[in-house]
Amino acid sequence: AHFGISLATKDGRVFETGDSDQLFTIQSISKPFTYGMALEVFGQEKVSKHVGVEPSGDAFNSIELEAGTNRPFNPMVNAGAITVSSLLYQHYGDEALEIMLKRFSDAAGRELMVDEAVYESEARTGHRNRAIAHLLLNFGMVDENIEPALDLYFKQCSILVNCKDLAVMSATLSNLGKNPVTSKEVYEISSVRNMLSIMLTCGMYDYSGQWAYNVGIPAKSGVSGGVTAVVNRQLGLACYSPKLDSRGNSCRGID
What is the pLDDT of residues 96-144, one digit of tens each? Predict the structure, then answer.
């Protein structure tokens, strides 16, 4: 099985070992990066009317909303990420994917693209995510344009990256929003702060508390086997190993 590790420092040096250039789909690792985009478009106050910031303690694909507010618990569970994609679609319309790809590419330091085969498969089989989206629509958390927003979400999860891309994307967050390899300003400092907070408290599915206790740095995992983490103002690191544990985290990635 593939296993790769990459590390990018705040002064733009990149270290790699193993299968660090093996491409895989970004999946849930996209969630903090789209959340940051939504924060910059709408501001914290508006976004937090639609998505909470509390760890849920439930599985990432749980069909459950916060009691009282009917918001998704946080932007790292599918319900929250679909709400964020819906907000971005509401703002950017059909250009949303292009704008998202541009931002992700700026963070990675190279041009990224969508794996069409994975996207088509996810769109064809993503009934649970459709159920979540319709529940959100029922409570007025998302816009009526739910189909194109879901389509955007499926494409977002199907963006192809490798370990080096994720390490540089994380190093961009570590470097207060500026890509340390290309020197491009990608995110505002204020949104980076919120992105890192949510990664620390909710980024590793329902292993997030244990991760914060054991490791103590903001991180995000995805079901394709990627894990990326940020050491603030120092470096970004990423690893890829497809075998998952029962919570959806890469077994080697969390060790």
Answer: 999 999 999 999 999 999 999 999 999 999 999 999 999 999 999 999 9
The tokens of 134 are what? 């319709």
223 catalytic per annotation? yes
Q: Which of 77, 186, 192, 223 is catalytic?
A: 223
* Separation of first and last alpha carbons in the chain: 16
- Considering the candidates 89, 153, 187, 207, report the single residue annotated as catalytic: 153
Helices (H) and strands (E) in the chain, counts: 11, 7
How many other CB atoms are there within 10 angstroms of residue 72's CB atom? Answer: 30
Is residue 2 within 8 Å of 236, Cβ to Cβ? no
Rounded alpha-carbon distances, angstroms, from residue 232 to 84, 187, 201, 253: 24, 15, 15, 19
Question: What gap in Å lies between CA 62 and CA 11, rounded to an integer?
Answer: 40
Catalytic residue among 6, 20, 31, 221, which? Answer: 31
Catalytic residue among 6, 20, 28, 208: 28
Which one of 205, 220, 221, 227 is the catalytic residue?
205
- Which residue has tokens 């319709």? 134
Residue 158 to residue 166: CA distance in whole angstroms: 14
Q: Is 31 a catalytic residue?
A: yes
Rounded CA-CA distance 166/7 in Å is 9
Predicted local confidence at residue 1, as pLDDT: 86
**Alpha carbon distance 150, 136 (integer Å):** 12
Rounded to whole angstroms, what are the CA distances from 103 to 88, 97, 169, 202?
Answer: 13, 10, 10, 22
Q: What is the DSSP letter of 159?
A: B
Told to judge if 220 belongs to the known catalytic residues of this protein, a careful annotator would answer: no
Nearest partner of 186 among 106, 122, 255, judged by Cα: 106
